[in-house]
Design goal:
By secondary structure, the protein is of the alpha+beta class. It folds into 3 domains: 54 residues, no CATH class; 55 residues, no CATH class; 56 residues, no CATH class. It is 31% helix and 20% strand. The strands form 3 sheets. The chain has a 3-stranded mixed β-sheet. Strand 4 and strand 5 form a beta hairpin. Helix 6 crosses helix 7.
């Protein structure tokens, strides 16, 4: 076993084999099994080899300090984040949050120089960002109540631009 990796596999594994990680080394962990997918492959060798795939959740945002810092449990996981060019990301090990492994990426790091705004990125893909007035931006809670359709459209459009750019 290689202790530098989180998950271990053994050649010729059976369904009775147990997956281990650093925290649970030496004992069965049912919650870990939910995050793994096991299959057998013979494409590159005549022997049957067990392959374990670790399931990760990838969260993508644009300007992650603004997105993540407003979460109520931010201070519980902020020490596990890396800062790259003022953006919060995970570089090495994913964040272990409950039964989930979370990888965080920021599309601002992928933006061309001088065009870091979501509006500029949207223009690259011909997706127009919905513009709000200064008052609407400052009072998003009021916008949500007074004009819920505009509030939803604004959020969805930003998410579409971010996802398109990440892909």
């Amino acid at each position: 076993m290689d202790l530098n990796h989180n998950v271990f596999t053994t050649p010729q594994a059976t369904s009775e084999d147990v997956c281990y990680d650093k925290e649970t080394l030496g004992r069965t962990d049912v919650s870990l099994m939910k995050k793994l997918s096991r299959g057998y492959h013979q494409e590159f060798t005549p022997e049957r080899i067990s392959v374990t795939i670790v399931k990760n959740n990838v969260f993508v945002g644009h300007l992650t300090p603004a997105d993540l810092s407003i979460l109520t449990d931010f201070y519980g996981f902020k020490d596990q984040l890396d800062i790259v060019s003022k953006c919060f990301v995970t570089l090495g090990k994913p964040i272990q949050y409950g039964d989930s492994r979370i990888i965080i990426r920021d599309t601002m790091l992928l933006a061309p120089g001088g065009q870091k705004s979501l509006s500029s990125i949207g223009k690259l893909y011909k997706v127009q960002k919905l513009e709000l007035t200064y008052d609407e931006i400052q009072n998003m809670d009021r916008l949500k109540i007074e004009n819920p359709n505009k509030f939803i459209e604004y959020g969805l459009r930003d998410a579409i631009i971010t996802l398109t750019h990440a892909c």
